Amino acid sequence: MEVLKAAQEGVVKDFTVIQSNEKHHAIVDRYGQVLGYRYRINDKLLETLSKSTSKLPRKRVKAGVRGGYPTRHYTVWRDYALVPRESSEFKRDLPASRAWCNENANLFRYLSNGLRMISPKVYARYASVKPYLEKEMKLKPLCGAWFGAAINEEVTGSTSTHLDWGDHGFNCVVPWGEYEGGGLILWPLRIVIKLQPGDAFFFMGSLIAHNVHEVVGVRNSIDLFCHKTMLTWKDRCKKEEEEIWKAKIN
Description:
Layout: H1 2-9, E1 16-18, E2 25-28, E3 34-40, H2 43-54, E4 63-64, E5 67-68, E6 71-77, E7 85-86, H3 88-92, H4 96-103, H5 105-118, H6 120-127, H7 130-137, E8 148-157, E9 171-186, E10 191-193, E11 199-203, E12 210-225, H8 228-249
Helix pairs in contact: 5-6
């Protein structure tokens, strides 16, 4: 209740602040579970991310539950659909959206290797979907190990506290822009983690209520994610496959 009240009132004065630096930093609970992990990416990857995003079609600001700023989702998911599909925003922005994914392939590969280091189990869970996705739907993940990205642009001030309730495992956030402040508040952990341009931060966005706090200037970011429904779809496909094999054997 104290954390909920603090989130509602925006009170963070007693929270632990983790400053940005060049070293890796892990947030681990008492059971050894990694809850968050931060490290730096190189300047070339960040420059490519910034330039490729600036070439995307302009998007109007739409006020939502997380704040008023342009955001788009380039992903493969099964949101309100029976089978996986590319998001409407990805298809609407073609061919620019496909070019954006291709231009940032090295970044996604680099971050995917980071995920494999941080949580081999989550990495393997994501990877298990790919064969079914390619075979059944002729699709593939758009962002390395993750199936897609939310692209958030021109964030100023603070965003609303929220959970990425539809996601599974680890989200990965990479910010860039000209700004100060903009710490990511992890409310249940009572932590503010400072993220500067070029920091990559992995955390469980579906379990840890969070928001970006007091951006001075303009902050952009990507948030890589895997929608839970992709995993349930894969599990269903695997079960049907096993039932077919059992029927053949019997």
